[in-house]
């Protein structure tokens, strides 16, 4: 047969669209033509496939070979199409029956020796194959990761000859080795932080409702320590959340280990990071730090040291939970449902009113944070210096394990009531799941107008109050819950005071 059809998958954002590899061998001068909007790395597969087939003992046709990667308007990049192209040539040249390819999809880059090298983005490929009802053959290293996708049949191969023998039903492909299990990482414990009971209380509320948190205080008060201990009190990832996180890491060329499969990501980019590093981008769009923090925590230390323009690009993802990247030839959408935790000092010197920074310097330093950006952060607190004698006291602080129990109980209430964390509620859902007594609603609205806060702040205060009530296992939001939630918006007034 001179025509063969092989199924493969391309990479487009977080999706793996189907690519039909059509190979036709016809009479004429020897040639190898590749069509279907291939990029340079795909065009180079002509030389890789030829050498891999010859070195594996296959006869390479001395005729005109045309390979079409359909659909023609979908850009193709990478070496993932080497294996399906080689199999298409083998079938079209009569060295393998076409029916043996039925029910399978193939992805893999070929070495000149015929060995199969790993690709990027195996998790989306495995998910797409599962949804299409087909089995997938991947490089062995990719198959190790892809086997974590439930309800999909994954095969791992190390050489082109192994795939050929498997399709001929002569011998099975090698067993996929289990992922190496690293020693369980011990997350930092909240008991290590001396004092700061107020900050710990707010950290618990942030974990319970998945709220954004901003901490202001002098250098060395424990802001970074508190942020690093947030993952230890948060609920583990659910299976769909863990799979979505693994898919993002997969297309970024990173791996998720079995020990951290259900552990929430914690990303802490340096303040010299660019806007593209945070939100993603590139000629072939790649996920940035906010997408790598999906269902996890993005910690920005020394917040004013980030350029204001860089911080402002986070405003839309904070609201929508997704980021849209548009380039001249490519567009992509990545999920970015992250929890922002930020820390900053009250002045460039690290302290307020220490005499080393003028009021103008303090104002210029704090003005790096825009009002709309601050407005999107629900919990804003001050972390003060510890009182004298606190560090030398041998007091038993509450552990992360005990705090986590309360957080888990509160999160279970939220999932049973509305199916999501409180911070993710929309405006209409707030009316359904966070009703206020009429007097309390008037009190909150009067307070919002008195302090000239935004309508966004009004809804965020209600969601924080809902989380406080959930931690206390109370079905109704009370005035006390609202007042506590309002107290965590004092930073806006504090910043205004510091600037003056």
Automatic annotation (TrEMBL):
It holds the Pfam family Mg_chelatase. The keyword Chaperone does not apply. Residues 209-387 form the AAA+ ATPase domain. It comes from Rheinheimera pacifica. SUPFAM superfamilies: P-loop containing nucleoside triphosphate hydrolases (SSF52540), Ribosomal protein S5 domain 2-like (SSF54211). Keywords: ATP-binding, Nucleotide-binding. The lineage of its organism: Bacteria, Pseudomonadati, Pseudomonadota, Gammaproteobacteria, Chromatiales. SMART domains: AAA (SM00382). InterPro entries: AAA+_ATPase, CHLI-like, MCM_dom, Mg_chelat-rel, Mg_chelat-rel_C, Mg_chelatse_chII-like_cat_dom, P-loop_NTPase, Ribosomal_Su5_D2-typ_SF. This is Magnesium chelatase family protein. GO terms for molecular function: ATP binding; DNA binding. Belongs to the Mg-chelatase subunits D/I family. ComM subfamily.
């Amino acid at each position: 047969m001179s025509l063969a059809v092989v199924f493969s998958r391309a990479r487009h954002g977080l999706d793996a669209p189907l690519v039909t590899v059509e190979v036709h061998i016809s009479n004429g001068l020897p040639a190898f033509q590749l069509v279907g909007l291939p990029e340079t790395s795909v065009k180079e597969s002509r030389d890789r496939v030829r050498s891999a087939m010859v070195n594996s003992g296959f006869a390479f046709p001395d005729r005109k070979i045309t390979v079409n990667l359909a659909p023609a308007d979908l850009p193709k990049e990478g070496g993932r199409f080497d294996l399906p192209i080689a199999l298409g040539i083998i079938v079209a040249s009569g060295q393998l029956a076409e029916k043996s390819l039925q029910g399978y999809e193939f992805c893999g880059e070929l070495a000149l020796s015929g060995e199969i090298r790993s690709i990027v983005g195996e998790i989306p490929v495995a998910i797409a194959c599962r949804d299409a009802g087909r089995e997938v053959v991947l490089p062995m290293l990719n198959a190790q990761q892809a086997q974590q996708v439930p309800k999909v049949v994954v095969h791992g191969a190390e050489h082109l000859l192994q795939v050929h023998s498997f399709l001929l039903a002569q011998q099975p492909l090698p067993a996929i080795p289990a992922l190496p299990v690293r020693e369980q990482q011990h997350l930092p414990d909240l008991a290590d932080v001396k004092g700061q009971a107020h900050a710990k209380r707010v950290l618990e509320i942030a974990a319970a409702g998945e709220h954004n948190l901003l901490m202001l205080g002098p250098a060395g008060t424990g802001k970074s320590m508190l942020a690093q201990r947030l993952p230890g009190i948060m609920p583990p990832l659910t299976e769909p959340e863990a799979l979505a996180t693994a898919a993002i890491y997969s297309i970024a060329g990173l791996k998720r280990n079995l020990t951290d499969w259900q552990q929430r990501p914690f990303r802490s980019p340096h303040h010299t990071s660019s806007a593209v590093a945070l939100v993603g981008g590139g000629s072939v769009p790649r996920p940035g730090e906010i997408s790598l923090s999906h269902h996890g925590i993005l910690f920005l230390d020394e917040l004013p040291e980030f350029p204001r323009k860089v911080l402002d690009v986070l405003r839309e993802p904070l609201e929508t939970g997704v980021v849209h990247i548009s380039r001249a030839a490519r567009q992509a959408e990545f999920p970015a449902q992250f929890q922002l935790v930020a820390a900053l000092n009250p002045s460039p010197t690290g302290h307020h009113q220490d005499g080393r920074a003028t009021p103008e310097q303090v104002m210029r330093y704090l003005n790096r944070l825009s009002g709309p950006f601050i407005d999107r952060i629900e919990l804003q607190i001050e972390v003060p210096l510890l009182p004298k004698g606190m560090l030398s006291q041998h007091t038993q602080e509450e552990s992360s394990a005990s705090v986590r129990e309360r957080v888990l109980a509160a999160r279970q209430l939220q999932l049973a009531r509305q199916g999501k964390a409180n911070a993710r509620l929309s405006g209409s859902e707030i009316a359904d799941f966070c009703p206020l007594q009429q007097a309390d609603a008037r009190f909150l609205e009067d307070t919002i107008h008195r302090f000239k806060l935004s309508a966004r702040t009004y809804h965020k205060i209600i969601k924080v109050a809902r989380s406080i009530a959930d931690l206390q296992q109370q079905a109704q939001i009370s005035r006390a819950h609202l007042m506590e939630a309002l107290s965590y918006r004092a930073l806006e007034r504090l910043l205004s005071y510091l600037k003056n």
